[in-house]
Amino acid sequence: MSLSGELIAFIGLALVAILGGVLLITLTKVVHMVIALVFTFLGIAGIYMLLSAEFVAIVQILIYSGAITIVMLFGIMLTKHQENDAPAKGGWGKFSVLAAVAGFAVAVYLGIYNLDIPVQPTALHEENTEQIGIELFSKYVIPFEVMSVLLLVALVGAIVLAKKDDEEGDRS
After folding, report:
1. Coil, strand, or helix at residue 152?
2. Is 137 in contact with 144 (CB distance < 8 Å)?
3. In degrees, to the nearest 5, what angle opens at C-alpha 13 toward C-alphas 9 and 14?
4. How many Cα atoms occupy the beta-carbon half-sphere of 45 within 13 Å?
5. Which of 42, 144, 157, 165 has the most CB atoms lying inside 10 A of its own CB?
6. Closest CA to 40 of 26, 20, 65, 56
7. pTM of the model
8. Rounded to whole angstroms, how far apart are CA atoms 135 and 122?
């Protein structure tokens, strides 16, 4: 295996995504967790760019790194939560997280080391957005519409739940 710029970029972006995920589960402050989540999302978007999926990378940045993170921050700020500091984990807690991450990395490496994927010719870098649109609106139009209805139902449900909390708060 030769060391190329693409491999170095992949390793760097993968480390950013993994480090963000590990920080997400080990940090104690909720806002710091959301920032770690943003780093994970940006690392994944960079990997999409390396895979020549520019549209998916831009959607990853706009939707996940932008909108979802802002919604999570608003949810954190608008809900009543106690800012109690959790008791610090001892050395065993950090060691177990490190051991779990290392075990997962070894399992993934062993799983894909001798994996033989047949090479199929594909047309990369040619109208990616158009290809996604054709696939989405020809083969997958029903799941796409079902997903939009599901998101609408979730939005209405969130409004109903927020309205109940407001009504209960007015009574007390």
Report:
1. helix
2. yes
3. 115
4. 17
5. 42
6. 20
7. 0.63
8. 15
